User: Fold Maltose/maltodextrin transport system permease protein from Halobacillus aidingensis.
Amino acid sequence: MSKQKHNPMIAVTISIVPGLGQLYNRQFIKGTTFLLLTIAFVVSFYQFLNIGYWGLLTLGEIPGLDDSRVLLAQGIISLIITGFAITFYVLNLINAYKEAVKIKHGRKNDDLRKSFKDGWDKSFPYVLVGPGLFLLIFVVVFPLLYMILLAFTDYNLYNSPPKNLLNWVGFENFISLVTVPIWRSTFFSVFSWTVIWTLVATTLQIALALILAIFVNDPRIKFKKFIRTVLILPWAVPAFVTILIFAALFNNDFGAINNDILGPLFNQAIPWMTDPFWSKVALIGIQVWVGFPFVFAIFTGILQSISKDWYEAADMDGASSWQKFKSITFPQVMFATAPILIMQYAGNFNNFNIIYLFNQGGPAVRGQNAGGTDILISWVYNLTFETQNYNMAAAISIVIGLIIAGFAFYQFRRTRSFKEEGEM
Assistant:
């Protein structure tokens, strides 16, 4: 066969069976290896994939014998394995085509040693990231896919495997969130409080951190190091310890805030734990205390990096303190920290620890299956581990994920640091 008649399309066509294209290109070792890997894959995974896809489609047929949860997991693993197989298959086609083009243009195949060396050089980065990618798929992607698929089933306390079989219900769970009265009222109540909690608590902690950072950075302030150390101390204490201490301080019966401050001074006792409004006020205050030191430390570093020449030029132009803050300080701080601040909002949107540790999302609210201070993530926790409404918990988790991803993507796109990334 002449090199000019070597047809790349033939190499691609016969590569429908991996390895044959490489054999056609006279890459006998590579072709044999690909062919053996294909045979080994089919022999090893045919039965597993067959059961996996059957289970994914049916979720079982015999109650008590077929466990829909296991079949769902096996189906997801089958999808992941199939993804790897398709990737290998596509790479096999691309390799067969490229090598056939080289032969057609008169280039000789490299010898085995050079082929191995070139292959190792090209694949070395993938070898390094391979273990991490493998763990990522089975530690992050697999649970995520499992949760997404559960949202389209009827898995709850009254329909639990292996006694019962799960069924695919489509978008019924999502529709229930906005049509069934108890789910609708609870969802919109919890969602609105989650948004308020995120905006108010995060904005206050950022504002407090910025104000304190500007004051401490003022040249007239003495003992700067000591003051900064004191202001960062709340960050040094583990957050869960701080939250538990505040939970004790705000306790209605023995808390120091009622017994030692409000009682003696104002003859008042506020129901911090039993009234939803005051519980929310307390939670926002605690979050501001816990969250501001981290932002303060970032703002302090940014303020110290702003050139003093800008302020001197502003003084020469007769700018006021507010004008210098509005035109120099604030834009520079926001430009440098916008992505981090966006993540502060996203983090507080899912800030489970403070809600649960303070009063487990309580107090109870009539006509709802969530507590008065539950945010979406703590509501999902209660649905999962207390009432075992796994399907609704999964559906709400998808809603949370879409909200967070959409918000973060939109805000990152609008930040100057994102827009000017290629210009710096």
Residues 3-150 form one domain.
